[in-house]
# Entry
Amino acid sequence: MERTFIAIKPDGVQRGLVSEIIRRFETKGFTLVGLKFLIASRELAEQHYGVHKERPFFGSLVDFITSGPVVAMVWEGEGVIASARKLIGATNPLTSEPGTIRGDLGVNIGRNLIHGSDAPETAEYEMGLWFKADELVSWTPTAMPWIHE
Ligand code: DAT
Ligand code: MG
# Structure
C-alpha cells in the first residue's frame, strides 16, 4: 500500500475547511494513518519546500506556510500519491478543474489550500520530515472489503 503526505495549509484552516478537505480523502476510500496540528517552524517549511528555494516566490511561500496552523497528514491506499494529486487539482486554483479541492474552494495560487506529495520519493521525504515513524498508525478499516475487491 502506498502512502502520501498531505497538508491543509493555513488558509484552509483559517477558512474552516479542515473537515471539508478531510472528508474528500475519507469518502474516496483512503485510510488516514497520521495526523497532527501544528504551526510549522521556518526550518521545517524551508526543508519542505527546498526544491523551490531558487524560485522568486520562495520567501512568501515560506512566510505563508508558517503564518498559522496546518493539518499535517499521511494517507494510505492503492495509488494514493497520484490520486491525491488529482483530488487536489492543479496548482493554480483558477485553472484547477471543478470537482477538485482547489478548483472548488480557491481562486489564488498563493492561497491554494492544500499540499500533496508529487511522487513516491517526495512522499517518503516529506513523511519523514513531518512525522516520526511511531506517529504513523498501521490499521485496517473494517470497510476495506467494501472499498477493495
Ligand atoms: P503544488 O503545490 O501543486 O505541488 P508546486 O510544487 O509547483 O505546486 O509549488 C509549491 C507551492 O508554491 C504551490 O502550492 C503554490 C506556490 N507556487 C507555485 N508556483 C507559484 C507561482 N508561480 N507564484 C506564486 N506561488 C507559487
Ligand atoms: Mg509540489
